[in-house]
Amino acid sequence: MRPSADFVAPETLGFESGSEGWWKTVGARRLLFTRLHSRLDLEKTERLQHTVFGVSDRDLASSSILVTVHETGGEVLGAFHGERLVGFVSGWGGYVDGRARIVSDLMAVEAGYRGGIGFALKELQAVVAFQAGFDEIVWTVDPLRAANARLNFERLGAHARKYLRNVYGEHFGAGLYGGLPSDRLLITWPLRSARFGSRLLGRYEPLEPGALSSLPEYAPGASASRARLTVPGDFDALLASDPARAREWRFRLRHNLEAAFASGYALTGFAGRRGEPHGYYLLSCTENDCFRDLSSLIVVDHSKALT
Hints:
Helix content is about 25%, strand content about 30%. By secondary structure, it is an alpha+beta fold. Helix 3 links the parallel strand 6 and strand 7 (about 135-140).
């Protein structure tokens, strides 16, 4: 499939093409972004998975697994600072309901390099996928992490309307998730929408922290076309200081989002900033989609026994 006229090329986004991949300055660092195909390069992703996610060897996506990603039409893309791999994103290619889709399974950025590299990896992943003929990218994310929400819904322009319970089990990344159920949002990023192009080209101003203050707080049974849903501003700090309260947030947000999605809402935005006590999801719906009978609620549950 040939790219359409509004195709966003890497060069449009500030990348410089080279023999090894693409160069881009992020912050004060000049980084090389490249496809990772060799076993030796892919082995470097294992270190990041351990340090960023805190996963065990059992839950690791090893180089022997990732080495076949590019054969599906997907890619593993890495960001190098000198010889050091400081970030990567991976995505498998395939078809779902006739749509060509990338399932972006992993993204990790080394702690000392955060602040722009994640966005650069996602925008490069998007244009590479677009050029290869894919229509959308989907991935999962913990709905309680405000920093991820701002990236996904505001900077990238993705949306979500499916909630997945305990996807990886309660022991996945115990050092990062504290033994909580690994609930996730399934996020969809349509690559051929005007919303997609406007976000990558910087034609959209992200919501300010107070932008949703006039909207009602969502509760099951709500009838407003737009509502907000509060989450902690720093869930990692809350998990470390008060695990019981963090657990309450997990189940409260699960209850509200399952009900919201069942009645036709979608997550379409996020207002919040680092250092603020709370962040706010924007829930939106159209008259045709919203307020369906809540008895139609379908819960996607990947565990055999939930607590």
